[in-house]
Amino acid sequence: MDPRSEVLLRQAELFQGAVLLAGLPADDLLGRLPDAHGWCWHAGDQAALDARFPERSHFGVNVPERAFDTAVVFLPKAKDLTDYILNAVAARLAGREVYLVGEKRSGIEGASKQLNPFGKPRKLDSARHCQLWQVTVAEAPEAKPLESLAQTYELPLAEGPLKVISLPGVFSHGRLDRGSALLLEHLDKLPSGHLLDFGCGAGVLGAAVKRRYPHNTVTLLDVDAFAAASSRMTLAANGLEAEVLTGDGIDAAPMGLSAILSNPPFHVGVHTDYHATENLLRKAAKHLKNGGELRLVANSFLKYQPLIEEHLGICAIKAEGQGFRIYRAKRG
C-alpha cells in the first residue's frame, strides 16, 4: 500500500463519512474506506481503480459534482495544480476539514503553507516518510474556473504563429521545452495518413503537425486528464481538429498509424520512470503500419537506440542539440 494511504489509515476514524480522495493512488485505500470516493486525473490509476472499485472514482479535471463532507488531497507534483485542487475542494467545504498528505521528498512541509488561505493548518501525523496536515475551512473561497489558470504562449512557425495553452500540472507549463523545440524543427517528410502525438502534454507537436499536414488524421494521447484538456484548448485556439485521447500508454493508441511522434515522459510525480517510454518502444511496431515511422526526441543520456533497433528496425539519429537527440526508425 502507498505510504501516504498508510498514514491516512493511522487516523482512519477521521475518514469514515463521505470523504473525497483527490489524486489518490491506485491501491486498496477505497477498500479500507468504504464510504470514500476518488477523484483521479491519471488514466492508468483510474483504470486500476475502476477494475477493483467500479464507479467509486471520478476521472477528469473538475471536482466531482457529488456531495462530500471532507476531502483529502494527495499532494500533486506541481505547486499550481495543488492550488487548483485545494481551492476546488475548499470551495465546497465551508466550516469543514480539508487534509493534505504527501511524502517529505515531494515537499509536503512547504506545501502545507498552501493551506493558509483557508484557515490555520496543523500537522496531524508524520510517519512512513510522509506528513498529514489538516485545516478547517473558515470561509469557502470562490471556485476558480480551470480556464482562468491556463497559460498561453505563441510559437513562430513557418505556417504562422501557433498558440499553445497549458494548464497547471501539465509538462513544461507555460513554456516550450528544449526537446519539443528540437523536434519541431525536424517535422519534415512525415508520411501521410494517421499520425499520433504520444504523451501530448499541451498538444504542441500534435497541433503543429495538424497545421503543417492538414490532410492527415492526427490523434493526441496522454495519461493525464489535464494534459488532454490542455491539448483540446490548444487545438481550439488554432482552429484545428484532431482526436484527443486519455489512456495509459501506447496500448491505448489506435492501430494502423503512419507515424508516432513523441517527446516521451520519464517522470511520474517526483519519481523517475522509464516504463511508458520503454513500453512505447517495444510496442510501436504493433501500432504502425508497414513503412510507418517512429520519430522521438529524448535526453542524449537515455540509451534508447538499441531498444528501438531491437523492436522496430534500423534507428538513425536525425538531429542532436542542447543535450537531446531525435531518433528515427521505420517499420519494415
The CATH superfamily of the largest domain is Vaccinia Virus protein VP39
**What Rg do the Cα atoms give?**
21 Å
The neighbouring-strand order within the major sheet is: 3-2-1-4-5-7-6
SSE run: HEHEHEEHEHEEEEHEHEHEEEEHEHEE
Defining traits:
18 strands, elongated, Rossmann fold, seven-stranded mixed β-sheet, 2 domains, single chain, alpha/beta, 332 residues
Quickly describe the structure.
This protein is 26% helix and 30% strand.
What does this structure look like?
With 332 residues, the protein is of the alpha/beta class. The chain is built from ten helices and 18 strands. A hairpin with a 2-residue loop joins strand 17 and strand 18 (324-330).
Write the layout of secondary structure elements.
Elements: H1 3-10, E1 19-22, H2 29-32, E2 37-40, H3 43-52, E3 57-59, E4 70-74, H4 79-90, E5 97-103, H5 108-111, E6 122-127, E7 130-136, E8 151-157, E9 160-166, H6 178-184, E10 194-198, H7 204-212, E11 217-222, H8 225-237, E12 243-246, E13 257-262, E14 267-268, E15 271-272, H9 275-287, E16 288-299, H10 305-311, E17 315-321, E18 324-330
Parallel strand pairs: 1-2, 1-4, 2-3, 4-5, 10-11, 10-13, 11-12, 13-16
Antiparallel strand pairs: 5-7, 6-7, 8-9, 14-15, 16-18, 17-18
